Amino acid sequence: MCGIVGYIGHREAYPIILKGLKRLEYRGYDSAGIALYDGTDIKLSKTKGKVEDLEDKIKKEITTDGTLGIGHTRWATHGVPNDVNSHPHYSNSGNLVIIHNGIIENYEPLKQELESRGYIFHSDTDTEVLVNLIEDIKKNDDIKLGKAVQIALNQVIGAYAIAVFDKSKPNEIVVARLGSPLAIGIGDDEFFIASDASPFIEYTKNAIYLEDEEMAVVRRHRGVSIRKIHDDSLVNPYIQELQLHLEQIEKGGYDHFMLKEIYEQAHAISDTFRGRLLTDKAIIKMGGVEDNMKKFLNADRILIVACGTSWHAGLVAEYIFEDLARIPVEVEYASEFRYRNPVITENDLVIAISQSGETADTLAAIKLAKSRGAFVFGVCNVVGSSIARETHAGAYTHAGPEIGVASTKAFTTQITILTLIALRLARAKGTISSSDYRHHLFELEMIPEKVNQALESDYMVKQIAEVYKNAKNFLYLGRGYNFPVALEGALKLKEISYIHAEGYPAAEMKHGPIALIDEDMPTVVIAPRKGHYDKIVSNIQEIKSRKGVIIGIVTKGDVTVRELADHVIEIPETLDCLSPLLTTIPLQLLSYHIAVMLGKNVDQPRNLAKSVTVE
Ligand code: M6R
């Protein structure tokens, strides 16, 4: 995934683009680059590394005048991340310059064709092929840039959000999207282009989100004209009022976005509840579910597709749907599901879970399920995202922007929404008694307050992190509802501290991983009082008798585990099915503190991008 930014208007473009790239760095941070039109020529600078490296390079390399420009932050797909492969890319003549988020799959034959016509390529990228294809069409047919872009895009296979301009016509930027997001901010005689609205939120609240297969010519003083790439029909622009606020995308006094987002969870869960959880009336109200109740109730099974942390939320949902609503559930990695030949019928109901709503594998799994007649329900955070649009119905988590690459509040709000759905279905099916239902709603409503209590363990977690920060391996164990939390805890540690960690169902330990136990490997055991407590105590004893080190996540007031474990972290008491919303908090904090102590880049871990829009 990459981030793209552009500006055309009456202000200096450089500071807007630079700040925009910093906000979009969550989308990729292998390299960055900017191209500005200074009134006579294009000034371009790009570099391997982060936007701050680019800023340093620009100071030495180019002047930054100009009211038109484009910028890019890259997560490498084609070609290693180096200066040459960084965007923007020039066409051979040096007249056109382009930025691109996505992949041109048929770039090889197009490149060969262009090479046979004398074009020379300096990078290994598919993007340089696209800009030269546009140039070739423009030159041969003597047509305007917009038309040339359209003809070129009709020849490419793949996914893209692009912005391109021509220095001989420096009053317009041409943009297009297919499969990668692109927003156009509409200001007062100025226009902003970006992968999401965060780069322009302080300048305008009005934006157009291009749909797939749409392109736009954005003209200085003249506005935006949109048309369909494939059939050339004109599109009436739909201008949305943005709900995003500047403080949501700033660190707000925290050292890292991840920490801010961990601490935002009580608030985020309350936002997920808003208008849906009506405890006093004993009602759960969710439009997407109510409108499609028959589909939910008549489904032979629910199939959940997702990746990464969202997949872990899906696993928690499997337990809760089966437990409360007695509906059979299967949880699939979207990336595996789409590449086999899964048995899906129109009697299946598919739930796709995705924070970003842009994950390519999840999107492809949805398309596959739809093609086999299944009804697909989306659980997304990002409003208007590709997955939100591709699904038949859905529910937003309303967690607010999640910028840290490691998912935190997305996970807990996904579990929250899936719990609401499971409870609603259980009530409709009569698989839960009225009193139990009310009790669940009451306990659910208490969760935000209890999340804040769980966060009070932060100081203790930090002390534990200090002791084990140099461990080479960690094991995370949990049973039942907390087995997925063990997986999630291990994923968090791996992705931001680069320490090897495994999540395992506690009972499976004796079938293999117990061989790893020694005094050097900490085992984090999730052992809340409700839910297989005695069994997990036995697992802890098995580890202790092999000189293992135990960090226990326990219910407040626990005595038994406290006596056995080397450290315990307490969370408030709740129902077994709601415990993942609390047990996950200390695990997020543990990974955060270890990563900070090891000097790792918490918000932008190596090799990762916030959402993976490539296969
Ligand atoms: O945006 P999505 O929820 O679809 O993203 C899925 C995964 O890529 C994501 O959860 C990833 O595993 C995170 N880095 C985990 O912290």
Q: In short, what is this structure?
A:
The chain has 615 residues and is an alpha/beta fold. The chain is built from 20 helices and 27 strands. It has 3 domains: 3-248, Aminohydrolase, N-terminal nucleophile (Ntn) domain (Glutamine Phosphoribosylpyrophosphate, subunit 1, domain 1), CATH 3.60.20.10; 257-453, Rossmann fold (3-Layer(aba) Sandwich); 456-615, 3-Layer(aba) Sandwich (Rossmann fold), CATH 3.40.50.
Tell me about this structure:
By secondary structure, this protein is α/β, with parallel strands linked by helices. It has 3 domains: 3-248, Glutamine Phosphoribosylpyrophosphate, subunit 1, domain 1 (4-Layer Sandwich), CATH 3.60.20; 257-453, Rossmann fold (3-Layer(aba) Sandwich); 456-615, Rossmann fold. The protein contains 20 helices and 27 strands. α3 (107-116) crosses α4 (126-141) and α7 (265-273) runs antiparallel to α15. Residues 307-310, 354-356, 359, 362, 405-407, 491, 495, 608, 611-612 line the site of 5-amino-5-deoxy-1-O-phosphono-D-mannitol.
